[in-house]
User: Which sequence fits this backbone?
């Protein structure tokens, strides 16, 4: 008998308690807490193989999309300190640079999936190794949240590939703190990733 | 001026109005519901009297930005680069699609990736808008800016922010 753990919210499926083998659960079984699909679950105590590819990185110039993200991040930083005017100005800059950043010519879902895979297989692992080595708690925190959110993005894309209408009869929410995407009729009481209360989860409406 | 000031969390405030009763300057009595920061002397009386815990005292000046290891920053930057690209990809899918379900999903991806980049920046040396990192960043933007309105906004920000290092 084994235990299977949800990589998103940490929910534990204990075969002994449930009396049903994890493998015997239907394929469309989902995490009862956060809705993560069955295939994301991992058996307990499986060692993660970490890539050894550790090439040196040099700091490069930021592009417009990144400048925009830094500006919107600082806008939120100002908001937290109730610095309204500063926050508005940073938001204005964020929008300015977002419009300046060039939109891709064409994009396929496959390209998006391969970017996500690279994040999950290499970028997060490397970042985690360095952050642990340097004992940077803040960095480890953002890596943990981001990795979980990225896993959900991957699973949503693969569900979308199998069934283009999988979200047709339900709703889409995004956690305004960590970026977790929740698919379901009612939002969870707290975000399964960062544990912020539900009022920070916002619905993404479907256009006409 | 005192080094701290009161702020009210409007989501928690249950309008018990004891802050009004104890405030020596009338700073808690406003039309917006927020404290009038220009009147607040930072005495903390409102925060202590509030039965719903909706008022907290926050500093005007925060401690300096913690030093971050260069290699950690480099790795987080790599993730930011990837998230920013994914945001743009999702943006492209959103703009070029006619399918409202696909658009809805793309919109969620745009938002999620932006939120992840923002969070990564906070942990790579930009937690505080008052830090030297932010100042250097704004100054480099100013140097590159070639539109007058943009320049003005950046200059205004540099002037407004109370840089702490």
Assistant:
């Amino acid at each position: 008998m084994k235990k299977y753990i949800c990589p998103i919210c940490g929910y534990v499926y204990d075969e002994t308690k449930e009396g049903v083998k994890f493998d015997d659960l239907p394929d469309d079984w989902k995490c009862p807490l956060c809705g993560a699909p069955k295939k994301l679950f991992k058996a307990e105590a499986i060692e993660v193989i970490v890539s050894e590819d550790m090439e040196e990185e040099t700091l490069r110039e930021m592009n417009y999309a990144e400048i925009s993200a830094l500006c919107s991040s600082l806008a939120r930083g100002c908001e937290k300190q109730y610095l309204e005017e500063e926050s508005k100005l940073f938001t204005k800059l964020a929008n300015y640079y977002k419009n300046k950043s060039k939109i891709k010519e064409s994009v396929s879902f496959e390209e998006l999936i391969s970017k996500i895979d690279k994040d999950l297989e290499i970028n997060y692992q490397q970042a985690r190794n360095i952050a642990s080595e340097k004992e940077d708690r803040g960095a480890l925190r953002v890596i943990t949240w981001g990795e979980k959110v990225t896993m959900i993005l991957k699973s949503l894309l693969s569900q979308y590939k199998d069934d283009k209408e999988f979200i047709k009869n339900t709703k889409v929410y995004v956690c305004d703190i960590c970026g977790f995407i929740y698919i379901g009729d009612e939002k969870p009481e707290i975000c399964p990733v960062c544990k912020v209360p539900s009022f920070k989860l916002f619905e993404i409406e479907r256009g006409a | 001026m005192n080094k701290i000031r009161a702020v009210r969390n409007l989501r928690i405030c249950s309008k018990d109005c004891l802050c009004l009763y104890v405030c020596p300057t009338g700073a808690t009595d406003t039309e917006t519901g927020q404290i009038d920061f220009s009147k607040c002397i930072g005495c903390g009386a409102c925060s202590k009297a509030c039965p719903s815990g909706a008022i907290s005292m926050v500093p005007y000046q925060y401690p300096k930005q913690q030093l971050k290891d260069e290699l950690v920053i480099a790795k987080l930057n790599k993730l930011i680069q990837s998230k920013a690209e994914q945001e743009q990809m999702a943006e492209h899918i959103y703009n070029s699609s006619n399918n409202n379900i696909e658009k809805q999903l793309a919109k969620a991806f745009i938002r999620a990736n932006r939120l992840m980049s923002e969070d990564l920046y906070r942990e790579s040396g930009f937690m505080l808008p008052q830090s030297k990192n932010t100042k250097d960043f704004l100054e480099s933007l100013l140097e590159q800016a070639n539109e007058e309105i943009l320049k003005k906004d950046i200059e205004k920000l540099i002037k407004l922010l109370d840089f702490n290092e």
User: Anything to note?
Assistant: Helices of chain B lie at 18-22, 45-49, 70-96, 100-122, 132-144, 148-160. The two ends of chain B are 20 Å apart (CA to CA). Chain B touches chain A through 73 residues (CB under 8 Å). Chain B has a mean pLDDT of 94.
